[in-house]
Amino acid sequence: MVTADYPGYIRKYLSETKPDAIFLFAQGASGDQSTRYFRKGQNFSEAKRIGYAIGEEADKVLNSMKLKSDVYLVVKSSEVDIDLKELPSREEAEAEVLKTKNKLEKLKKENAFYIKIQNANLKNLGAEDNLGYILLKEKGIDIDLKVDELPVEVQVIGIGESRIVAVQGEVFVEFGLDIQKESPFKNTFVIELANGCLPGYACTKEAYMQGGYEADTSLLTGKAGDSIVETALKLLKETK
Question: Which of 3, 78, 141, 203 could form a disulfide with 207 if both were Cys (CB 3.0 to 4.6 A apart)?
């Protein structure tokens, strides 16, 4: 089944209150964010509840806005090379898959709390992805994410005194907050999954040390996020 999920319900809400508007959905830096910690279900009614709540708030913001036709526009873009991690041995990867799979099955048999099972499931998926990369390498097959998505593009779009920072891939929220904190512009919005993806999640150094789905499935190192932040801040200053 393919669904527009909660963004579809945001669009539906706004199509009723602002029928002439063109709706665009952009995802902020949310590589380590998940609704599994607060959602009330996994169904269409829950997607509607979340989507309508966001749509209602967006409508309030739209109603309070003053439109201008004479704003300064600027776009700057830069590409940055990032380091990729060394993959473990096949034996180490296979052992990790077995370990995470056994833990997942144990939690299922114990009828553990949903979040514990889901986190264990994601940990297992990350281990399987990591093993998959190694098997591809052994067969001499290029990993598409490495071939197609590098070097990494960072883009800054200026509209008046506001700035939109567009970055590839799924980036941990800490990097988005770092960009906003250091930006010379009060209204700085960071959008991920823009202009392509990445060879995995851009995680913090701490996350790579702890492991987990995002860190295990990623081909990046802890330097990737810092490189993206550094490039974004350089571009922001150039548009000042």
Answer: 203
User: In this structure, are residues 143 and 199 in contact, taking their beta carbons and an 8 Å threshold?
Assistant: yes
**Judging by beta carbons within 10 Å of its beta carbon (0-12, 13-18, 19+), is residue 232 exposed, middle or buried?**
buried
Domain locations in the chain as residue ranges: 5-26+39-64, 73-85+146-238, 90-143
Which residue bears the tokens 């990790």?
96
Tens digits of residue pLDDT in 52-66? 999 999 999 999 999
Contact between 204 and 229 (Cβ < 8 Å): no
- Short-list 75, 219, 71, CA closest to 148: 219
pLDDT, average across residues 13-30 = 95
Q: 219 phi and psi, to 5 degrees? A: -95, 0
User: Is the CA virtual torsion 171, 175, 181, 184 positive or negative?
Assistant: negative
pTM above the 0.85 mark?
Answer: yes
Q: Average pLDDT of the chain? A: 93
Q: What is the pLDDT of residue 186?
A: 95
Residues shown for the chain: 240
Neighbours of 223 (CB within 10 A): 15
Residue 54 identity: I
Helix or strand run (H / E) with residue 97: helix 90-109
